[in-house]
Structure formats: structure tokens, C-alpha cells
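Whiteboard transcription, Tuesday session. T.W. wrote the C-alpha cells on the left side:
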């Protein structure tokens, strides 16, 4: 009978186990492992019943033969990876499948890379290298990218010369970093508040209240007020959109909301909207505006805020290009 590889056995085992159990196993695999097994599964046209039975029996036999405790489990697992995937692939998998003692805490894994880099920038390069060495490759790469260029090479050299470090030292560093971040308004690696949050809130207030708040801020912190304005996106900022973006936006909003919002818009913005509609649609919209009569300012502002928020969402999704206070982003 043909000797099957470990990967093929794993593929057959997954396909012939109970679906719920297979799903649980797949959840514990990383993307590389899923990819390798997936490729093997794609090669399987059919699975003879006697082959499936033999693999199940082999699996159960190996499980039952093990003692209650597995000694040096990490080393054993690494050997198994080498035998199954080869040394190069096994090394990659090992990096993402280290034992708990070698993994970074949840805090380091979830903390925003830019925020973490800004905090580490104040630490000694040796400390930075210790922290980075206990992250997965992808996260460490992101953090290094945000570090000042002048210390990047120093940190890399120190990492290269690191020996095994007591996990307690890393934990102590993590605790200090977390406390420092929390003291400046960062919880679980996420900043609370910030200029971006303020701009988003003001965007959704009525224009009168928004203006009052911005004026108060401007009286004492003109630079901060300017930063907030640059991050805000208002209905009149639609003037900065190109024709294609306007056309995409028009498909996402209702005629009722558009009519209400345009009731209080500048003539230049109205013409911008009309020019991106069919002649018939533009004519109908003009007639609706003329027939609408007086409306509450608050209703107009609500309509404008709603459309501005839709435009901002489309911009964040990369579907249109926004332009705010001469700043462009997609």
C-alpha cells in the first residue's frame, strides 16, 4: 500500500472526521498551515474507505500510546514540524506557533504599532530590541518602520545579538509600557479621544453648535482648532470632489435627503451636483427645490450631515476621493 505523507494524512483526517470537530481543528491552524493542507486537499479526487479507516486507526493508536504527560512538548513539536514541512517551512510555522511562554502578551499583540513605536522611542535601544524580539515578525516589522531612522539599525544589531531572555524581564517591561500608555489615555493599545474623534463628533452636530464649540476652542487653542477643521468633512466640502466621485455619491443617497440638503447649499455646490446628473434628473431636482418652500434649518443641516457622513464613509472605503481643507485622502 502506498505510503502517505504527513500532510496527506492530515488532509484525509480533516475530511473524514466529524464536521464540527474538523472545524475546531481548522480554527487552531494558521494561514500557512491551512494553505498547505488546502493544496493537498485539492489533489484528492476520492478517498478509499480502507485508507480513511487506516489513518483514523493510526491517529487513535498514536494518541493512546502517549503517556499522560508529554515531556519537552515544544521541542517535540518543532521536530514534528521539520519532518512534516521541511526545515525552511517549519521555521516559519514555528515563529507563529511558539509556546505560551515565548509569545508576547495580548497587550503587545493588540497595541497599535504607531503608538507602541512612539512610546518605545523613549526607551533604550536594548529595551526596544527585547520587546521586538518577543513579537511576531509582522508586528515587529510594523513597529520598526515607525521608529526613528537613526535608531533602527542599532535596534536591529542588538536584536541579532540577543541570547535567551528571562520571560519575567519581558513581562516587567510590558507592565511599565502599559501603565505609561494608560496614563496618556491609551487603553489596550487604543487611544481614547484624540483630534480625529473630536472631528467626527463635530461633523455630526448641527452647524450652530459645531461653530460655537470650534470658536471656543479657537479662542484658547487656535492650533488645535485648525487641526480639527482639517480633519472635518462638511457638506460644502463636496465642492472639492471630482465628477466621478460625485456620481458615485449620488448613487448612495436618496432624492429626499439630497433635496433637503441642497435647500441650504451654496449655488456653486448646487451646480456641481446638477452637472453630474442627467438632464432629466437635474430638471426634476430643480423643480423639487422650487416647490419645497420654507424648511427648518435644523432639517437642512441633518440632511447635509447625513450626506457628508456617507461621503466620508465612501472615502474611507476607497470608493471616492475626498478633499478637506486642501488635504486629500482616499
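and on the right, the sequence the group agreed on:
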Amino acid at each position: 500500500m502506498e505510503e502517505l505523507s504527513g500532510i496527506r494524512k492530515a488532509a484525509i483526517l480533516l475530511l473524514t472526521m466529524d464536521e464540527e470537530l474538523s472545524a475546531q481543528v481548522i480554527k487552531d491552524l494558521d494561514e500557512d498551515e491551512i494553505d498547505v493542507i488546502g493544496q493537498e486537499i485539492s489533489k484528492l479526487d476520492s478517498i478509499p474507505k480502507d485508507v480513511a479507516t487506516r489513518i483514523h486507526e493510526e491517529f487513535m493508536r498514536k494518541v493512546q500510546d502517549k503517556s499522560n504527560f508529554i515531556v519537552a512538548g515544544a521541542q517535540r513539536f518543532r521536530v514534528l514540524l521539520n519532518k512534516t514541512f521541511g526545515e525552511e517551512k517549519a521555521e516559519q510555522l514555528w515563529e507563529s506557533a511558539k509556546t505560551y511562554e515565548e509569545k508576547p502578551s495580548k497587550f503587545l499583540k493588540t497595541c497599535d504599532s504607531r503608538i507602541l513605536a512612539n512610546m518605545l522611542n523613549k526607551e533604550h535601544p536594548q529595551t526596544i530590541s527585547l520587546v521586538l524580539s518577543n513579537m511576531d515578525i509582522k508586528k515587529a516589522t510594523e513597529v520598526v518602520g515607525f521608529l526613528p531612522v537613526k535608531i533602527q539599525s542599532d535596534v536591529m544589531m542588538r536584536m541579532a545579538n540577543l541570547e535567551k531572555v528571562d520571560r519575567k524581564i519581558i513581562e516587567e517591561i510590558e507592565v511599565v509600557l502599559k501603565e505609561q500608555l494608560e496614563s496618556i489615555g491609551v487603553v489596550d493599545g487604543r487611544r481614547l479621544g484624540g483630534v480625529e474623534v473630536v472631528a467626527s463628533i463635530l461633523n455630526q452636530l448641527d452647524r450652530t453648535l459645531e461653530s460655537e464649540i470650534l470658536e471656543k476652542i479657537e479662542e484658547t487653542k487656535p492650533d488645535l482648532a485648525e487641526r480639527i477643521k482639517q480633519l472635518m468633512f462638511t457638506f460644502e466640502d463636496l465642492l472639492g470632489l471630482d465628477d466621478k466621485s460625485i456620481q458615485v455619491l449620488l448613487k448612495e443617497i436618496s432624492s429626499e435627503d439630497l433635496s433637503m440638503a441642497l435647500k441650504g447649499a451654496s449655488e456653486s455646490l448646487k451646480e456641481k451636483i446638477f452637472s453630474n446628473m442627467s438632464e432629466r434628473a437635474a430638471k426634476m431636482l430643480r423643480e423639487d427645490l422650487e416647490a419645497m418652500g420654507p424648511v427648518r434649518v435644523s432639517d437642512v443641516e441633518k440632511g447635509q450631515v447625513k450626506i457628508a457622513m456617507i461621503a466620508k464613509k465612501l472615502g474611507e472605503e476607497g470608493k471616492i476621493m475626498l478633499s478637506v481643507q486642501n488635504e486629500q485622502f482616499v
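Someone added at the bottom: Confidence is low (pLDDT under 50) at residues 66-73, 99-104, 324-330.
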